[in-house]
């Protein structure tokens, strides 16, 4: 069978990093005898510039008809600095998440032995930290309505909305992942203030008895923000709502020493999407300096989560570990030593896999 991969490179460094992930995928498919067929489509600012829509219908069509989506990054400063822009690249990402039904975003947070010294946290705090943050991705304040401005423009509002059904499916997923790991689930909310959070907590308490072997705790998001950097090893699986998850995972990404190392998988109803958690890093676009590892590791998650190919995923992880060990790294983690280019890192990884 030929696996159909939709490639949505997007903006900024997106095309360069996705190119390296493709190299790595090609090395894997060659080695293991799989067949991949890639089809590219527009998304983000690039899509706005070319066709006036950040997530065109053809792109959606392609995603729906693919076995997995490999996604680069979106965003452009010309939109960030223009609050009045009517069409924004981010709307494309949100529409893709919503229309593909990607309600769960899995963001594994872990450390790499040879990078630990790059972490802003003390080695003894982060060495061995390993948790999975499950971020709800299609609800909450990102999508709640009403959203907008009063007629005189002097008041603005967003709405945080969650249905019991949306909460239950993501919390159950949290329990299931905890069951496959160290059997500890932290449900993060702000139940002392927010009505949606109180519903989250109520549903957590309702479903917890179905998972008697999982130790569950409830934690306020402000406390969680503190514990992530003071005691990250206490976490196993964390499940939380959309915006809390967005913020906490950026925070958690620094544990590994570079945001350029953290992958993610968005799963749900239709085709799953695999993308780095970092943004489009426009300052580096076209310079061949960006770290491709987060995207390469997202491809590893694609093999594991979309195709159940565990050996393939493991070999990609091994290649990344070995590249760090060998010092074949981009400038963000080069530590004053020789920095390799984005494409050199990609070539090295592909070659490692082919020779393995
Ligand atoms: C992410 C990003 C997006 C988000 C932006 C680009 C809309 O920060 O994937 O974490 O907030 O979800
Ligand atoms: Mn984010």
TrEMBL record:
Gene Ontology MF annotations: 3-isopropylmalate dehydrogenase activity
Binding note for cofactor: Binds 1 Mg(2+) or Mn(2+) ion per subunit.
Primary subcellular site in the record, as a coarse category: cytoplasm
Site (Important for catalysis): 142, 190
Entry-linked InterPro entries: IsoCit/isopropylmalate_DH_CS, IsoPropMal-DH-like_dom, Isopropylmalate_DH
UniProt-listed PROSITE patterns: IDH_IMDH (PS00470)
Annotated EC: 1.1.1.85
Residue positions binding Mg(2+): 222, 246, 250
Major enzyme class: oxidoreductase
Necessary cofactors: Mg(2+); Mn(2+)
The organism's place on the tree of life at top rank: Bacteria
Keywords in alphabetical order: Amino-acid biosynthesis, Branched-chain amino acid biosynthesis, Cytoplasm, Leucine biosynthesis, Magnesium, Manganese, Metal-binding, NAD, Oxidoreductase
Domain Isopropylmalate dehydrogenase-like: 4-349
Subcellular location(s) per record: Cytoplasm
Pathway connected to this protein: Amino-acid biosynthesis; L-leucine biosynthesis; L-leucine from 3-methyl-2-oxobutanoate: step 3/4
Binding site for substrate: 97, 107, 135, 222
NCBIfam families per the UniProt record, alphabetical: leuB (TIGR00169)
Protein family membership: Belongs to the isocitrate and isopropylmalate dehydrogenases family. LeuB type 1 subfamily.
HAMAP family assigned to the protein according to its UniProt record, in alphabetical order: LeuB_type1 (MF_01033)
Function in brief: Catalyzes the oxidation of 3-carboxy-2-hydroxy-4-methylpentanoate (3-isopropylmalate) to 3-carboxy-4-methyl-2-oxopentanoate. The product decarboxylates to 4-methyl-2 oxopentanoate.
Complex and partners: Homodimer.
Listed name of the protein: 3-isopropylmalate dehydrogenase
UniProt source species: Marinifilum caeruleilacunae
Lineage: Bacteria, Pseudomonadati, Bacteroidota, Bacteroidia, Marinilabiliales
């Amino acid at each position: 069978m030929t696996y159909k991969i939709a490639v949505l490179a997007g903006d900024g460094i997106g095309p360069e990093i996705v190119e390296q992930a493709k190299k790595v995928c090609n090395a894997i498919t060659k080695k293991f005898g799989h067949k991949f067929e890639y089809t590219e489509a527009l998304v983000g600012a690039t899509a706005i510039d070319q066709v006036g829509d950040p997530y065109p219908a053809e792109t959606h069509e392609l995603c729906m008809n693919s076995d997995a989506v490999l996604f680069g990054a979106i965003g452009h400063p010309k939109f960030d600095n223009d609050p009045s822009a009517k069409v924004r690249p981010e709307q494309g990402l949100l529409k893709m998440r919503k229309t593909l039904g990607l309600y769960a975003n899995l963001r594994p947070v872990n450390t790499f032995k040879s990078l630990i010294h790059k972490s802003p946290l003390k080695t003894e705090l982060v060495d061995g930290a390993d948790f999975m943050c499950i971020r709800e991705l299609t609800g909450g304040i990102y999508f709640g309505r009403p959203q907008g401005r009063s007629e005189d423009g002097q008041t603005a509002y967003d709405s945080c909305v969650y249905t019991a059904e949306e909460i239950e499916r993501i919390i159950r997923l949290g329990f299931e992942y905890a069951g496959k790991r160290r059997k500890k689930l932290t449900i993060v909310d702000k139940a002392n203030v927010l009505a949606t959070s109180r519903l989250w907590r109520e549903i957590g308490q309702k479903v917890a008895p179905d998972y008697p072997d999982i130790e569950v705790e409830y934690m306020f998001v402000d406390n969680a923000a503190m514990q992530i950097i003071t005691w990250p090893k206490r976490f196993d699986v964390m499940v939380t709502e959309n915006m809390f998850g967005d913020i906490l995972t950026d925070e958690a990404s620094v544990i590994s020493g570079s945001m350029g190392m953290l992958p993610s998988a968005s799963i749900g109803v239709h085709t799953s999407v695999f993308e780095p958690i970092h943004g489009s890093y426009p300052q580096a676009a076209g310079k061949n300096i960006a770290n491709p590892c987060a995207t390469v590791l997202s491809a590893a998650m694609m093999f594991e989560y979309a195709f159940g190919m565990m050996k393939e995923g493991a070999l990609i992880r091994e290649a990344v570990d070995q590249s760090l060990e060998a010092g074949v790294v981009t400038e963000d983690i080069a530590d004053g030593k020789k920095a390799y280019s984005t494409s050199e890192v990609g070539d090295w990884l592909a070659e490692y896999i082919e020779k393995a």
